[in-house]
């Protein structure tokens, strides 16, 4: 469907105004409830006018996202009235309806919005979009992503374009609760901002402090038509369950929950802005070097930061590298890595095949494995591998790129294949990966009566001499359990009761 524009129906709107005006002004005592509503409506219009002035919308072109629901239809009405008052509050405005094509009735919604705009004489564009869940984000999130892309693109096409959406105070409460349940931090719990910049375009929410009941009253007052989205009742969606099941409970316990959450989110937003500003400054102090692929941080400067800043600095870096797919446990693992008192090298693996490494008083985050793939001299700890939180680990050692994987034994098939590239370790939190142990160290290979020197283990397994100093050796509580590609020792065990982990190793250059 293309653009719809019908400037000639403006008069219809004028008549509707007059009718409502007559009912209120001349029928004194006719409908006291309506009079009360009118006061609220005046209040709503005043607040909207104030919002327009604060954000200097007199010189802007507002692109309103209108779904056809009551909230956005009321926003449309407010904009329309704001344009036609004694002093226009908007430089101009137009409507965009995004047709996701996901529901059988979506074409009717588009038609409904377009024809109402046509009645008002407002320019309306219906933008059909294709919703594809490419990032495993879920269909709801994918629809939201493409919707904002379309709305912001339209706003960007105007010289002073801004985008207006009709979120109200209950939406804010829902967002807060959903983020709280999903374990968001400060940034997420601040929920939606009344004014934000999204992809370079101001995204404004003039109704964020308005209650839904006031919006509905306003719609009734001005006979604003709207359509109910039938999926709103479907409790298969998380948001709807929060809305229909959890919020009524919260409101029963604390009737002021919506207003209090609004105040709280405003405070959190202010705290969040302050912390982010401080962290961006701190980042300049701790980052020693930054290239497109990795970043190098001074552990000394990092240790001097306040705990909140330490976390936020890592948070910012992870956002750059891991596109928000990280967890709080990743932040904490990197922080622990940076604050360790000993000087040993260590690593944690991150999503998207990235890693964080510690070497010589620096933390490296990025795609590179060990930053200095140097020859190993003497024993060296490669990683304290946190099996509970980190399931994959990769690093380079003496010219070989290693990938390690850990799988709880309970998840393995009943009779796993035997291989020197796999071993079983007891149910421990950490294993240590070291290299460069003296070749005279003795190990007791599984199934052998006696012990063997490391040197003999390497030669029997045909591990090239030049690779031996950097060859990883896995230890549990200081005892060797596995030399990948060579032997497993009597410390390792296959636990039929399902405890422990299976470890897998793949050296990329050597094995090929
Ligand atoms: N199909 C649509 N076309 C244009 N604008 C829309 C559409 N759907 C929603 N909007 C705009 O977005 C606002 C929020 O809508 P809704 O609460 O349904 O979004 P949501 O899916 O919860 O996403 P979020 O709240 O994260 O923006 C609406 O008030 C309206 O302004």
From TrEMBL:
Gene Ontology CC: cytoplasm
Domain of life of the native organism: Bacteria
InterPro entries per record: Lysidine-tRNA-synth_C, Rossmann-like_a/b/a_fold, TilS/TtcA_N, tRNA_Ile_lys_synt, tRNA_Ile_lys_synt_N, tRNA_Ile_lys_synt_subst-bd
Top EC class, one word: ligase
Notes concerning its domains: The N-terminal region contains the highly conserved SGGXDS motif, predicted to be a P-loop motif involved in ATP binding.
Family of the protein in this entry: Belongs to the tRNA(Ile)-lysidine synthase family.
Record's protein name: tRNA(Ile)-lysidine synthase
Organism, scientific name: Alicyclobacillus sacchari
């Amino acid at each position: 469907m293309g653009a719809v524009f019908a400037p000639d129906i403006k008069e219809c709107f004028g008549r509707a105004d007059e009718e409502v005006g007559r009912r209120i002004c001349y029928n004194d005592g006719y409908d006291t409830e309506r009079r009360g509503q009118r006061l609220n409506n005046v209040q709503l219009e005043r607040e909207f006018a104030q919002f327009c002035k604060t954000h200097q919308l007199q010189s802007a072109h507002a692109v309103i996202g209108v779904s056809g629901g009551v909230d956005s239809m009321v926003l449309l009405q407010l904009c329309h009235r704001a344009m036609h008052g004694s002093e226009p509050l908007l430089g101009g405005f137009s409507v965009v309806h995004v047709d996701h094509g996901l529901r059988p009735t979506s074409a009717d919604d588009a038609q409904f919005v377009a024809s109402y705009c046509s009645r008002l004489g407002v320019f309306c564009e219906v933008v059909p979009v294709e919703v594809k869940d490419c990032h495993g984000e879920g269909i709801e999130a994918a629809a939201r992503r493409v919707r904002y892309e379309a709305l912001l693109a339209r706003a960007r096409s105007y010289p002073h374009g801004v985008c207006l959406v009709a979120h109200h105070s209950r939406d804010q409460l829902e967002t807060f609760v959903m983020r709280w349940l999903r374990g968001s931090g400060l940034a997420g719990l601040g929920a939606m901002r009344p004014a934000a910049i999204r992809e370079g375009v101001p995204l404004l929410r003039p109704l964020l402090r308005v209650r839904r009941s006031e919006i509905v009253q306003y719609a009734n007052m001005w006979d604003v038509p709207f359509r109910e989205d039938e999926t709103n009742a479907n409790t298969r969606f998380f948001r709807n369950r929060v809305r229909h099941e959890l919020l009524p409970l919260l409101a029963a316990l604390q009737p002021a929950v919506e207003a209090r959450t609004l105040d709280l989110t405003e405070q959190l937003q202010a705290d969040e802005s302050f912390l982010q500003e401080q962290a961006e400054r701190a980042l300049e102090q701790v980052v020693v070097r930054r290239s497109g692929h990795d970043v190098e941080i001074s552990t000394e400067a990092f240790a001097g930061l306040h705990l909140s800043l330490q976390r936020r600095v890592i948070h910012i870096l992870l956002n750059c590298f891991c596109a928000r797919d990280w967890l709080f446990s990743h932040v904490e693992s990197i922080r622990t890595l940076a604050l360790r008192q000993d000087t040993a090298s260590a690593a944690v693996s991150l999503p998207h095949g990235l890693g964080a490494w510690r070497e010589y008083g620096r933390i490296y985050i990025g795609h590179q494995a060990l930053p200095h793939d140097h020859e190993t001299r003497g024993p060296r700890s490669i990683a304290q591998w946190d099996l509970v939180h980190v399931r994959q680990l990769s690093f380079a050692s003496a010219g070989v790129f290693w990938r390690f994987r850990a799988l709880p034994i309970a998840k393995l098939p009943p009779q796993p294949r035997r291989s020197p590239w796999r071993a079983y370790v007891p149910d421990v939190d950490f294993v240590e990966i070291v290299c460069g142990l003296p070749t005279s160290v003795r190990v007791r290979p599984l199934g052998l009566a006696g012990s063997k020197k490391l040197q003999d283990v390497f030669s029997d397994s045909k591990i090239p001499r030049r690779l031996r100093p950097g060859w990883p050796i896995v230890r549990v509580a200081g005892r060797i359990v596995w030399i990948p590609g060579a032997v497993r020792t009597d410390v390792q065990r296959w636990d039929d009761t399902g405890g422990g982990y299976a470890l897998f190793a793949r050296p990329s250059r050597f094995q090929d």
